């Protein structure tokens, strides 16, 4: 769906407000929105909310063979997806530019800064290394995707535990989480992106732009920094011309912000660790606030299934018994066998075909149900059958019906074709009826 | 000139917290839900309960199609986006529940609410409702039903494994009993949200 265009008056309003140092949500120029971090039950799963922007991060690992030119290093793989629920404009086919830009920035921030020790991911040099995969899904887009995504990525990586491995000579033992506690990844530092939006050719700047502000900005400067004030990545897009002292000022602001955010992350990780150790409840269900009116919880509910058996027996007794099923296969030639009989083409003329009722598949359907293992039946129907429908305005000229051994189960007649199921022991011989030319 | 109206219902579905061993009686796991948690889509809900993808999508879509009053919104595309946050068993049932709550949150007119319930039959025939992943793997048959709220009739069933028709009817009856609880949960959570007190 195309993005709703921003009206001119909205644009003017936003720009005027920024000139007067006012933001729509009441923040100051250098204020971040509220950051909320919640963890799931599995290690490595977290949701980060930056205001209303929401990113889900999940980390998983796998043992693979290493890259040929880096035989002693593990592999890191990052993937950010803009889910269709995040914004109406994000359709599966259409988001390439933004997506590529965000993915590239995230990769530079996390991979090139060497925040994860890839050497520690090596199990057997040249043969087996850990491949760590970070999947980020944007759930709601309210501006500043890159900051939220970088926080989600680093939090998920810090939270993740990989299975323990021990190498004794040639033998490699991979322990399951039940045998030995999984170990955390070895993380040197936590790079976090801070975004600065520039307006009016660099005159005004805002930290952490929300979605409206992003639409009217001229350019964006992203600085990825860690708490030791080391810049990991810096990127300026939009073609704005920035002065040297502007960039320096931004990096100072970024330093302050990153320190705050890192502290928040460490506190959240510590809380989660504490809850898990004490055996309390953890996971997304717990992080749904009880007091919010839009949230609701219900405890484990026992279900009384004592009368289930009687009910079931009643239903089965009332239902008609299933019709006799002929399921002996017939061997025509070596290599060709037949079970049951396929029905004839039921596509009559379109205007006459509304009488077609597929449901009374009769014995054919029941044969299939008892043989097939994996069924995705839309309506479960036991033992009931339609009465045969006989219409008299069929257009066929002559039809020869062979008498089978037993009585025919059913005569299904459609407006332009009629067919009959015969016991499969007879070779099926039918005169083709004249179908109308519209076929 | 064609008019386009887009109603979006988006969901997050998460299954289960913890894997406490279940006793011989049947019980549904702890439920939690949050509505209207995303600002961009028209409606959103998060439902937490305790090649395959495409078939699951088709099943959910067919259930929604049966229930949503599409004739009230001609030329409209209703997109339901489900994001699995974590899977601890009974995934299809949880997706169905989340889809229903999101459609309600978006205000899409429906002829009934629906809910999903999963049953697992293990090798000695015991019925377990709302199984965990482990129970699903070890079960002889896993049956998922979608039931409607008006008369608890069956909207969709998806089964895997071997079972007799008696067992099918038993599972269906058990699912109908369980669906009562799910519908009560829906009602209470919506009441909480929309009541004036």
UniProtKB/TrEMBL annotation, chain A:
Its main location: cytoplasm. One of its GO terms (cellular component) is nuclear exosome (RNase complex). It is found in: Cytoplasm; Nucleus, Nucleolus. Pfam families: RNase_PH, RNase_PH_C. One of its GO terms (molecular function) is mRNA 3'-UTR AU-rich region binding. Residues 349-361 have a biased composition (Acidic residues). The keyword Cell cycle does not apply. Keywords: Cytoplasm, Exosome, Nucleus, RNA-binding, rRNA processing. Residues 32-163, 189-254 form the Exoribonuclease phosphorolytic domain. Signal peptide: none annotated. InterPro entries: ExoRNase_PH_dom1, ExoRNase_PH_dom2, ExoRNase_PH_dom2_sf, Exosome_comp_Rrp42_subfam, PNPase/RNase_PH_dom_sf, Ribosomal_Su5_D2-typ_SF, Rrp45. It comes from the Eukaryota. Residues 335-362, 387-439 are annotated as: Disordered. GO terms for biological process: exonucleolytic trimming to generate mature 3'-end of 5.8S rRNA from tricistronic rRNA transcript (SSU-rRNA, 5.8S rRNA, LSU-rRNA); nuclear mRNA surveillance; nuclear polyadenylation-dependent rRNA catabolic process; rRNA catabolic process; TRAMP-dependent tRNA surveillance pathway; U1 snRNA 3'-end processing; U4 snRNA 3'-end processing; U5 snRNA 3'-end processing. Residues 425-439 have a biased composition (Basic residues). PANTHER family: EXOSOME COMPLEX COMPONENT RRP45, EXOSOME COMPLEX EXONUCLEASE RIBOSOMAL RNA PROCESSING PROTEIN. Belongs to the RNase PH family. Component of the RNA exosome core complex (Exo-9), composed of EXOSC1, EXOSC2, EXOSC3, EXOSC4, EXOSC5, EXOSC6, EXOSC7, EXOSC8 and EXOSC9; within the complex interacts with EXOSC3, EXOSC4, EXOSC5 and DIS3. The catalytically inactive RNA exosome core complex (Exo-9) associates with the catalytic subunit EXOSC10/RRP6. Exo-9 may associate with DIS3 to form the nucleolar exosome complex, or DIS3L to form the cytoplasmic exosome complex. This is Exosome complex component RRP45. It comes from Pan troglodytes (Chimpanzee).
From TrEMBL, chain B:
Residues 1-13 have a biased composition (Basic and acidic residues). GO terms for biological process: nuclear mRNA surveillance; poly(A)-dependent snoRNA 3'-end processing; rRNA catabolic process; rRNA processing; U4 snRNA 3'-end processing. GO terms for molecular function: RNA binding. Residues 54-109, 113-177 form the Exoribonuclease phosphorolytic domain. SUPFAM superfamilies: Ribonuclease PH domain 2-like, Ribosomal protein S5 domain 2-like. Keywords: Exosome, Nucleus, rRNA processing. It is found in: Nucleus. Pfam families: RNase_PH, RNase_PH_C. Residues 1-23 are annotated as: Disordered. InterPro entries: ExoRNase_PH_dom1, ExoRNase_PH_dom2, ExoRNase_PH_dom2_sf, PNPase/RNase_PH_dom_sf, Ribosomal_Su5_D2-typ_SF, RNase_PH. Gene3D superfamilies: GHMP Kinase, N-terminal domain. GO terms for cellular component: cytoplasmic exosome (RNase complex); nuclear exosome (RNase complex); nucleolus. Belongs to the RNase PH family. This is Exosome component 5. The gene is EXOSC5.
């Amino acid at each position: 769906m195309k993005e709703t265009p921003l009206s001119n008056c909205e644009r003017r309003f936003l720009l005027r407000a920024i000139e007067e140092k006012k933001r729509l949500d009441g923040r100051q120029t250098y204020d971040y929105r509220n950051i909320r971090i919640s963890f799931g039950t599995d290690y490595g799963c977290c949701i980060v909310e930056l205001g209303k922007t929401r990113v889900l991060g999940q980390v998983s690992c796998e043992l693979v063979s290493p890259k040929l030119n880096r035989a002693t290093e593990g592999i890191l793989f990052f993937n950010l997806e803009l889910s269709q629920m995040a914004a109406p404009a994000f359709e599966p086919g259409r988001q390439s530019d933004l997506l590529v830009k965000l993915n590239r920035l995230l990769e530079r921030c996390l991979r090139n800064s060497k925040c994860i020790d890839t050497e520690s991911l090596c199990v057997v040099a040249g043969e087996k290394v850990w491949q760590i995969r970070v999947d980020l899904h944007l759930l709601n887009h309210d501006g500043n995707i890159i900051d939220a995504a970088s926080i989600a990525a680093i939090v998920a990586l810090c939270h993740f535990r990989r299975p323990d491995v021990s190498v004794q000579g040639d033998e490699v033992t991979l322990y399951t989480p039940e045998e030995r506690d999984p170990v955390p990844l070895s993380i040197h530092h936590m790079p976090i992106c801070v975004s600065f939006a520039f307006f009016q050719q660099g005159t005004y700047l805002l930290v952490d732009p929300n979605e409206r502000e992003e639409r009217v900005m001229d350019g964006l400067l992203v600085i990825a920094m860690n708490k030791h004030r080391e810049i990991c990545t810096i990127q300026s897009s939009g073609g704005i011309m920035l002065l040297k002292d502007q960039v320096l000022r931004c990096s100072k602001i970024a330093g302050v912000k990153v320190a705050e955010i890192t502290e928040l992350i460490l506190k959240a990780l510590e809380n989660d660790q504490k809850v898990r150790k004490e055996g309390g409840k953890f996971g997304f269900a717990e992080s749904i606030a009880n007091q919010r009116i839009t949230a609701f919880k219900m405890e484990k509910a026992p279900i009384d299934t004592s009368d289930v058996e009687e009910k079931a027996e009643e239903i089965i007794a009332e239902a008609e018994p299933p019709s006799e099923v002929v399921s002996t296969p017939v061997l025509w030639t070596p290599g060709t066998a037949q079970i049951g009989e396929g029905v004839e083409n039921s596509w009559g003329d379109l205007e006459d075909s509304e009488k077609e009722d597929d449901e009374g598949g009769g014995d054919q359907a029941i044969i299939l149900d008892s043989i097939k293992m994996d069924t995705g039946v839309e309506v479960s129907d036991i033992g009931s059958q339609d009465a045969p429908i006989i219409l008299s305005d069929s257009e066929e000229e002559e039809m020869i019906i062979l008498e089978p051994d037993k009585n025919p189960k059913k005569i299904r007649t459609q407006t332009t074709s009629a067919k009959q199921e015969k016991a499969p022991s007879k070779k099926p011989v039918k005169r083709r009826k004249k179908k109308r030319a519209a076929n | 000139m064609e008019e386009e109206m887009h109603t979006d219902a988006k969901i997050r579905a998460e299954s289960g917290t913890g894997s406490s061993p279940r006793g011989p009686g049947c019980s549904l796991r702890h439920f939690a839900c949050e509505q209207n948690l995303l600002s961009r889509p028209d409606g959103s809900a998060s439902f937490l309960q305790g090649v395959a993808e495409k078939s699951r999508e088709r099943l959910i879509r067919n259930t929604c199609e049966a229930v949503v009053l599409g004739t009230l919104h001609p030329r409209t595309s209703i997109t339901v986006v489900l994001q699995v946050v974590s899977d601890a068993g009974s995934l299809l049932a949880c997706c169905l529940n989340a889809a229903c709550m999101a459609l309600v949150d978006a205000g899409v007119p429906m002829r009934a609410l629906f809910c999903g319930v999963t049953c697992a039959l293990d090798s000695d025939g015991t019925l377990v409702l709302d199984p965990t992943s482990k129970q699903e793997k070890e079960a002889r048959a896993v049956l998922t039903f979608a039931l409607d709220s008006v008369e608890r009739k069956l909207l969709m069933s998806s089964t895997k494994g071997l079972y007799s028709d008696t067992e099918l009817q038993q599972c269906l009856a058990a699912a109908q009993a369980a669906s009562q609880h799910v519908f009560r949960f829906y009602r209470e959570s919506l009441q909480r949200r929309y009541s004036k007190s």
